[in-house]
Write a structure and sequence with these properties.
Layout (H helix, E strand, L loop, with lengths): L9 E2 L6 E2 L2 H12 L4 E2 L6 E2 L2 H11 L14
Antiparallel strand pairs: 1-2, 3-4
The structure holds zinc ion (2 copies).
Length: about 70
C-alpha cells in the first residue's frame, strides 16, 4: 500500500484510509478486524461505535451512569 502523503503517519493495511492520529487508526482498523471495543457493562451488548453504546445505554439502562471501558479523548 503506497502512502498517499507523507503527512499521514498511518495508512490502513486493508484500505486506503490514512490518518496522522494513532487512536484514529487503531479505531479504524477495528472496523476491519470486527473487534467491538465498546462493551456494555450491564449486558452482553458490544459495539464498534461509542455513539451506539451511548444510545444502547439510554435505551436499555436509562438509570445507570454510562461507564466507558475506553478513555474518552478530550
Ligand atoms: Zn481500512
Ligand atoms: Zn447493556
Amino acid at each position: 500500500m503506497s502512502r498517499p502523503s507523507p503527512d499521514y503517519k498511518y495508512v490502513c493495511f486493508k484500505c486506503s484510509h490514512h490518518t496522522s492520529v494513532t487512536q484514529r487508526m487503531e479505531f479504524h482498523v477495528r472496523t476491519h478486524t470486527g473487534e467491538k471495543p465498546f462493551g456494555c457493562e450491564h449486558c452482553d451488548y458490544r459495539s464498534k461505535q461509542p455513539n451506539d453504546l451511548t444510545r444502547h445505554m439510554k435505551l436499555r439502562h436509562p438509570n445507570v451512569p454510562v461507564k466507558w471501558k475506553y478513555k474518552k479523548r478530550k
